[in-house]
Amino acid sequence: MSTSTATAPGRNTARPRQDARRWWALSVIALAQLMMVLDATIMSIALPSAQPNLGLTDGTRQWVVTAYTVAFGGLLLVGGRVADRVGRKRAFVVGLVGFGAASAVGGAATGPAMLFAARAGQGCFAALLAPSALSLLATTFTDGKERAKAFGVFGALAAAGGGIGLLLGGVLTQYLDWHWCLYVNVAIAATGVVGAPFFLDHRAGHRAAGFDGPGIVLGSSGLVTVVYAVSRAESDGWLSGTVLPLLAGGVVLLAAFTWRQARAASPLLPLRIIASRAHGGPMLTLCLAMVGLFGAFFFLTYYLQNVLGYSALKSGFAFLPMSATILLTSTQLSARLLARVAPRLMIAPGLAIASLGMLTFTTLSTHSAYATHVLPGAVLLGFGMGLVFMPVMATATAGVAPQDAGVTSAAVSTAQQVGGSIGTALLNTIATSSTSHWISTHLAGNGGAQATSTQRQAIVHAGAVHGFTTAFWWAAAIMLAGALAAAVVIDVPSPRHRACRRSLNLDPFGARP
Hints:
Elements: H1 17-20, H2 22-54, H3 63-86, H4 88-107, H5 112-140, H6 144-175, H7 180-199, H8 213-236, H9 243-261, H10 271-275, H11 280-307, H12 312-318, H13 320-337, H14 344-360, H15 370-386, H16 389-396, H17 405-445, H18 453-489, H19 495-503
């Protein structure tokens, strides 16, 4: 939609009508993005209330979260190709309507099966909505400075949405009831559906974006299998008889998918996209960043509620500084820097700062104060991630052929979802095993069965914190690895250098509307 302000002499310099609507379009797209990210965490806070109300068992409650993430992560590539084929605006509106309808069913759920099915439905429509939203943003804003601002808002919501979901879930659960954690999506989706026809530019789908049947089966089943196996690892363990075969099967399916994509006439995911350092590098970096960020949300939530005794609402407010820092850094600093410096000069330092923030959480104890031990790490983590999300997403989706915009956006979202799922399961396994070993060792050193109940409780709390801090060490290391990957792999030049190269027809990375 955006056009260059430079025009030939005598040519009409008036901007087209859709150009004037581009910022309203951003508000509609950002609203949809916020809704999807909220739903990854909002039900986590509501689960303690929903569980007795619906008769969920401890063994089945995980499906309230897992049904959404498995469907979402597993079907993203298909959703991206559908958006390319039928048109991104059409796919976006269908995704909004479907997501809102599934949310209404979930809010009205009277039993576990109804809620699980609704959450899976949300994931299916999110898999269509997410790539549509990101590719609409990428094709709407092609001017360098405006693109940076738009992706600053979008990236901020992608990073901060999890924390906002925890806060909103706490407010709705405490002052209304858990049903409203799902009903709220109906209002958000309805707002987006009303705004889309007025502000989003319609472009026909691309027939060149063909459907590769075997690729769809192999890719979707492989992603669903891997995401499901990772979700089960939290409760069953990575080496269990359930998780290990599922992981192996998922890897085999994805290997077969890769083989198929290299030979298909109309691949579901053109391998040139992820093989490119300009696109694949940011996706790899995003995946590693999400491993650490989701781990932080997960363990800080448990630390605040189970160790410090915070309520769900108070825990939600405790995440506000992190979310606010991400929002401010993305929109006020990153958006300006991206127009001046190479993306890796923001992404690599950003992940290094986020890693430092994660390291501060390794000093937590059973008696740590929020202001002196949690808040500094939360602000550092938020500042670092605010430097990462916007340039990663803007870089990964720039310069892609129109018929591949949807599936490229889907690949970015897949990296985000898979990274978050793997991070939560991997770090939780590390924390659990570390906690168990610590508790057994210290119980034995304190008289074992002879220990008083007070001693046992103190040991259990200290053991939990030890497990959390061990996981934070690993998360910091993974984020540092992401910083190194960004510095080495991402080779996109600064916008000024790129403009010079484009003027000489030397730059294949120039954004195309």
